[in-house]
Amino acid sequence: MAKFFEEPSRTFNEYLLVPGYTGENCTPDRVSLKTPLVKFKKGEEPAISMNIPMVSAIMQAVSGEKLACALAQEGGISFIYGSQTIESQAAMVRRVKATKAGFVGSDSNVSPEDTLADVLALKKETGHATMAVTENGEANGKLLGIVTSRDYRISRMDPSEKVKNFMTPFDKLIVGDEDISLSEANDIIWDHKLNQLPIVDKDQKLVAFVFRKDYESHKDHPLELLDDKKRYIVGAGINTRDYEQRVPALVEAGADVLCIDSSEGFSAWQANTIKWIRDHYGDSVKVGAGNVVDEEGFRFLAEAGADFVKIGIGGGSICITREQKGIGRGQATATLDVARARDKYFEETGIYVPICSDGGIVYDYHITLALAFGADFVMLGRYFARFDEAPNKLVTVNGNYMKEYWGEGSARARNWQRYDMGGDKKMAFVEGVDSYIPYAGSLKDNVQITLSKVRHTMCNCGCLTIPELQKNAKITLVSQTSIVEGGAHDVVVRDEHFDAKEK
Ligand code: RVP
């Protein structure tokens, strides 16, 4: 007889938190959202922790290098998508690692032979007024000068004027060498009243810029997640097919943590992948695995040596795995089951394997619920894909600003490697859709509001840390009718489409 789970599986939307006692010291500014990313032994510290419990999904529409830097600034981690060539993924990781906090890689470069018209076009495209003049206009080429809007007067100059004739040449520039610290760079900026300081290596090649405005913003990010060389921490997705080539390239590029990206993680292929990594790198390379939705799946991956385990099948906003294959489980039930398995495994072995609730977060409070259900952190796709920093396109649809968002299992992503058994393209079928989602602005603004809500709710539950919430939260199921009661009801909400005329 098949195994039956007697209870229906449920989603986060079916639950609410019941407040606990809030003491006078239980205030949002005292809440710590620090959480482990990778496994650790009882009494020891994890090799990597995050300052906020959020990671971005391993997806083309979500986790590119800009988002990775912006999320690390806020205290979380991005997993750069693996559905691209090994070379381009490693190059993305390398660029994130080259972006030391406060040091910005130049994406506006011109050559001395370019013209004023080229400069103006590039300025329009990137929005950046400062450009590096390098040999052949290469990003990390020999620095020959810089151009800022102080170097030209559009009304007085011919658009065909060559950059070499109006740039500020290298010998007139103040520059920093590549070993300079951010505070030393900032001192030079202040002492010489500069807006930016180019950083060059011993061969005069451009490494980065430090901008006055970025130093200020660096101070605004007390939670930023940095490695011991003050570089942003970044993750990368891998698959169970080309890991023998992909893993070494990503490790060499500086990825801090890897994660096997698959719709179904309870498989021999995942164990083989982890084993290969352990055989070649021991514990020095950190790798998460998944996704699973029950105790058995968790235990399998924990015993295989995963550094963290991801939970969720079919709950993603763009995911149609449940419709296509009939596999999956409600995200709240899956998280609860796996959290119990993690605690049991910890009791038995003394090893704590963090778990991540992946997909299906719709409202901000779902994050708090996922943590209360036992997750150590959450992975989000749709949420981050709405932001400026995501690599997907901003478009207008019926007059509204939208971002494109497509699943890794969609025909658009062509990520057949994610499906261990679907490598033969003739057998492959889609498990995801291509969609639009409303544009929401900058990552920083949104993440800060989301986490403010999480902190407030935790205080309502009387909890100052995630482990306290996991232990002490009180959770209730809600009925369909009480869900209606939870929104605005029995009133006509005023918005721009409806405004009454005063009598
Ligand atoms: P969401 O945050 O609800 O958009 O879900 C994102 C998650 O959905 C990803 O982290 C991944 O686990 C899953 N996903 C990505 N692509 C697909 C698909 O095409 N089916 N599913």
In short, what is this structure?
The chain is an alpha/beta fold and 503 residues long. 32% of the residues lie in helices and 18% in strands.
Task: Say how many strands there are.
Answer: 25
User: What is the strand content?
Assistant: 15-25%
Q: Percent of residues in helical segments?
A: 25-40%
Broad structural category: alpha/beta
Q: Remind me, CATH topology of the largest domain? A: TIM Barrel
Radius of gyration: 25 Å
Q: What is the rounded distance between the termini?
A: 71 Å
Average pLDDT works out at 93
The dominant shape is globular
Q: Could you give a short account of the major beta sheet?
A: 8 strands, parallel, barrel
CATH class of the largest domain, named Alpha Beta
CATH homology-level superfamily of the largest domain = Aldolase class I
Associated small molecules: ribavirin monophosphate
The assembly state of the depicted protein chains is single chain
What is the count of helical runs? Answer: 16
Point out poorly predicted stretches.
none
Across the major sheet, the strand order is 5-6-15-16-17-18-20-21
Tally of individual domains: 2
